[in-house]
């Protein structure tokens, strides 16, 4: 992990409040694993508001041109600052952070399920899985058509996917967890990798209780302060047998955890 500066090559609007930031960084392109993230400084030099860096998953890595990207939604002060960054400027960030995703040699089939901006880290994981010869099926769910352009990136990686929107404006009307519940029998020999809002993760955990053999990784996106394991701001509860639990830091122990071991309070 390093404190880095990378030239901004593009900051494209991808949809309503959705942007893709492309940054030149040979270090990140050489050293980052899918599932890892960077902590971005969201204030100009000398400014202290917002004080804390903001965490973002790596969305794409182009090793040939040493360019990585971050797909982000504008939520508050930090992401509003990011949306105003322009080509030619420098991005101040720390990374790569967290423990990256590694494909399981024993498992051939992966079902990736992303809700909203949760599709960002899963896209790079999907690419890695395809490149290592795994069979993947990608399920994605959004509120509306804001993620319309994302499908263009997805089809470069995977052809087996289903997109749902709550209002039916893009893809099929519905939500992926309902589809999963009704079709879980088709995916009994798949490993799941999921990322999205806590409610969605909790729902999927409930569905999987009826399928005890299924293994599922969850990428947790707790709010963070330091991002490097010092402040304890990102702790979650993880089941520990028999009947107990332990605290884990999402930034340094995660962000990937066994979904069935996460305790959602
Ligand atoms: C490991 C990790 C990876 C992430 N990857 C991405 C990514 O690839 N793309 C992306 O758009 N976002 C990602 N996020 C979430 C992103 O960090 C937050 O949206 C961002 O920090 C918000 O900053 P802000 O200053 O704009 O908003 P703030 O002013 O800090 O918050 C605005 C609103 O967003 C909510 N919020 C802020 N952070 C989170 C969070 N972590 N989870 C849920 N709600 C939150 C707040 O409760 C508040 O309601 C990731 C978070 C983590 C921990
Ligand atoms: S964000 Fe500080 S310990 Fe995880």
Give an overview of the whole structure.
The protein is an alpha/beta fold and 265 residues long. It has three domains: 2-97, Elongation Factor Tu (Ef-tu), domain 3; 101-218, Nucleotide-binding domain of ferredoxin-NADP reductase (FNR) module (Rossmann fold, 3-Layer(aba) Sandwich), CATH 3.40.50.80; 220-265, Dihydroorotate dehydrogenase B (pyrk subunit), domain 3, CATH 2.10.240. Helices cover 22% and strands 36% of the residues. It has helices at residues 26-31, 77-83, 119-131, 150-157, 176-183, 198-208, 250-253, and strands at residues 2-15, 18-24, 37-40, 54-57, 60-62, 67-73, 90-97, 109-115, 135-142, 161-165, 172-173, 190-195, 216-219, 235-240, 244-249, 256-258, 262-263. The protein has a seven-stranded antiparallel β-sheet. The chain starts with a strand and ends with a strand. It binds flavin-adenine dinucleotide and FE2/S2 (inorganic) cluster (FES).
For the CA atoms, what is the radius of gyration?
Answer: 18 Å
- In DSSP terms, counting alpha (H) and pi (I) runs of 4 or more, how many helices? 7
CATH superfamily of the largest domain: Nucleotide-binding domain of ferredoxin-NADP reductase (FNR) module
Note poorly predicted spans. none
SSE string: EEHEEEEHEEHEHEEHEHEEEHEE
Shape descriptor: globular
Bound molecules: flavin-adenine dinucleotide, FE2/S2 (inorganic) cluster
Please state the structural category: alpha/beta
What topology, given as strand order, has the largest sheet? 4-3-7-1-2-6-5
The overall average pLDDT, rounded, is: 96
The name of the CATH topology of the largest domain is Rossmann fold
Q: The biggest beta sheet, please?
A: 7 strands, antiparallel
Helix fraction, binned, reads 10-25%
